[in-house]
Prior knowledge:
Layout: E1 4-9, E2 36-42, E3 47-53, E4 56-62, E5 67-68, E6 78-86, E7 91-104, E8 114-116, E9 128-130, E10 149-157, E11 160-167, E12 170-173, E13 178-192, H1 201-212, E14 218-223, E15 227-232, H2 233-238, E16 252-255, E17 258-260, E18 263-265, E19 277-282, E20 293-298, E21 324-330, E22 335-336, E23 349-350, E24 352-355, E25 359-366, E26 375-384, E27 394-400, E28 403-410, E29 415-423, E30 430-438, E31 445-457, E32 465-470, E33 474-481, E34 490-494, E35 502-503, E36 507-509, E37 512-519, E38 523-529, E39 538-542, E40 557-561, H3 566-578, E41 583-587, H4 588-595, H5 602-615, E42 623-627, E43 649-653, E44 657-661, E45 678-682, H6 687-701, E46 712-717, H7 726-734, E47 742-747, H8 754-767, E48 771-775, E49 782-783, E50 789-790, E51 805-809, H9 825-831, E52 839-843, H10 849-863, H11 873-887, H12 893-897, E53 898-901
Parallel strand pairs: 40-41, 40-42, 42-45, 46-47, 46-48, 48-51, 51-52
Antiparallel strand pairs: 1-7, 2-13, 3-4, 5-6, 6-11, 7-13, 8-9, 10-11, 12-13, 14-20, 14-39, 15-19, 16-17, 16-20, 18-19, 21-31, 22-23, 24-31, 25-30, 26-29, 26-31, 27-28, 27-30, 32-38, 33-37, 34-35, 34-38, 36-37, 43-44, 49-50, 52-53
Helix pairs in contact: 3-6, 4-5, 7-10, 10-11
Amino acid sequence: MVEVKKTIKLTFLFCLFPLLLFFNKNIFASANSQSITTLEFNFDSLTSHEVNESGKTYKSFSLPDGGLTAEPGRPQLPFKRKLVPIPDNVQPEISYETEPGETYYQTDILPAPYINIGLPFDNMQKLYKEYCKPSEAYFQDKNFPSTACEIENIITIRGKKFAVIMVYPLQYNPALHKVETFKKVSVLLKLAAVLPEIKSAKRNSLLTTQESSPSYPMLKIKITKDGIYKLTGKSLKKSGFTLNGVDPATFKIYYKGVEVPIIVKTKKTSSFGKSDYIEFYGEKNVSQYSDTSVYWLSAGDDAGKRISYKNKGLKSGGKTKKYFTEKIEEEENTEFIQTLPEEPDKDHWFWKRIYSGEKKSFDFNVSNLSSASDTVKIEINLQGLMDDTSNPDHNTNVSINDKKVDEFSWDGTAEELRVITTTRSILQKGANSLSIQSTSSANDYMVLNNFSVSYPSAFKAADGILFFSENDDGTHTYKVSGIKGSANTIQVFDITDPFNVKSLKFKSKGKYITFYDVTSGATQYLAAASSTFKSPDSMELITEKSGLKDTSNGADYIIITHDDFTEQANTLSQFHASEGMRVKVAKINDVYNEFGYGFYDPQAIRDFIEYAYNSWQAPKPSYVLLIGDANFDYKNYLKTNTKDFIPTKLVDTSSFGPTPSDSWYACVDGDDSIPDLYIGRISASSAGEAESVVSKTIEYADLSLDEAWLNNIALVADDPDDGGDFEALCDALESEVPVTYSMQKIYLTSFANASDAKDEFVAAIDSGALVAVYAGHGSVTEWAVEELFTVSDISLLSNQGKYPFIANLNCLTGYYASAADEKSLGEVFLKAENSGAVAFWGPTGLGYTNEYEEIGKELFSTIFNSENSSTSLGESVTNSLINAYTNQGVSEDYFKDMVILGDPALKLKISQ
């Protein structure tokens, strides 16, 4: 018998904050530094069957206790995954031996499917799996996978590190149409070569911010445009900022935690009057979350940083520049396309669609076109929206002012970034038009994301202000027209580094101001008359710190709430405190101020949780609750004005693109997607909704285990189809439940119509159910295409005092971050007053039926295991995901998109 031996060496750097591990069900081996762990994987249970797809016969392999790779179009390979605990700061080395099994010739493995959601995505439609055409992998003469065993990842769960071992029972060579299976794979994991500890730079930076932060009170200044800002003594006094006794020399302005230089003008050096003023350069925020930048004004202590002259002493310059390159950027965000582009971290907001034969025009304005250069550059960002059998799918013409400047083609659902170089003659002063035309005769549609036009511009200010850039090194002379005023009322700044703005001396003569500068690298300038100086959008006095960075804090449970729901947060805090938990309530604006420099940004929330986890008094926090609804449309592009109380984080998932995730906030230990704290959300958009959920939560906690209805479980299933056998899924869940429970099966196929099934479900909930599960097709607002239950049906429920925990093993029903007023089914179950559910668990994205089944079985196994009967909802669902990920190979995506709507510390009323 031939044995294949291979060794793989992977190096990892670790740092670890030790803490008791609370997820330990699947830890099957122990390891110490310098030790060897031996693992054996037997594949006697490997099965296969033939599948006919697109006129070709494939073989599909599977393991009853393993997973399948899922990259669409590539070979779908079975695997087993195991977690092995490893010490901190080690270098794992893995080697393995294989025992050959059966070899298949003239055999090809079925490609992995994808979830067809259609374009545009409609959350009311039925989603289904579709096997796409094989990818380029099927033409390669190499093995898939390349190795029978690998370290997939190193993960950290609350201070404990694990090597994620992936083992495959076969290798497939597409070019040879050959599959070699293994009966057994023996793995040796060697833990050696202890590496020096690397301290957490992120944690240290948070501590440094705390130690170097300026004194309070501070004035929080919000702006939304680039420019020079002027703060008068009168405006400061109106905002509540005390000027009495303030030494103007001690004024300081901070931006993102860094002091920036300013100009302070006073009549008296020792005081600051109403007509005195501060000037500083401010830039608008550039992020996907907000255009608002935040600056902080303080006074006292040492002297502040002042703007200094850059070109002082420079008496003359080089040759006078004749033009600069002006770049006009045009973009409107009117449509969010969920799954395009397919690559991660891409912009999913688009402007206007263009269909076959259509021509769409977009206006832009050109000012001060200069004849000193002839080069014009046009950049266009287009996205293909269809992938037809004809190639190429997209044939496109681009015109400027009805003169064609380019024609090109591209294929499929790809992004097309087109750069066109043309001449100045194509443009005209004032109004211009860019036209994009689809010349495809077949079905075609694409969408414009944005475009820009770069052209030579004269140095002429518009309305007294001019921004421009210099890209050439050397000594230069600039003559700018259009800025009127005296030397005391005009400013010329080098704004290349917004944290270190410099002033430039200039001469004013006639209609020109002239200045000289020496440049090295790209340099940005701003020349402006005082008439263009701006006032902040808002100013708010912050009198003291919130104390969130006080390391004497300690909490088992952190509640992050919007100010509108502080009363309800305090009520829930007091309840959990009465149970013996340490609870800390943090207001969201305090989180932004302390951990995000005042900026609205989900990263501030995560940084706060990480700081509390690492720096507060032991034991580390275990629970986080967010109180407030969310809106994925951070900037209100869709003009719905739906308030974003506590933002979600959009994370990339393999099937649904940027997907709302709360667990991202709880991933604070290690670089992985497994949460280190149990997190939930009460997605309230009013105090009444928050009150309803908190009241139901406390009422549920006070229930006696003697309540008869707590022995009821409702299983609801859609009719089986190509998307999955949902009845079989529910039957599998039943096998995990003790016989002492009463099971009520509401299977759509057992009823004459969906209305009858709905009546049966309503009756089951009104009678009382400990847990209700739905498996099947779904959308944001409904179960089943036949509308077995929808958001409008919540009014049918009359189950006061008998609130179930509802688990949804289907797509989208946990999607809490809609931009419209329409709420998800999970939200209406949770927020229903005196009815509905006490908590809801479901996905904000898409998934596969077979993986939902494994997650559901692990959930029921965890809930109804007598050893876990006292665990919280957060523990139960998190452990079930870890178990399904480890034992059954489900995707990491489920950690990202499965959301608890409700209190994660809630303990289900399990009677054992």
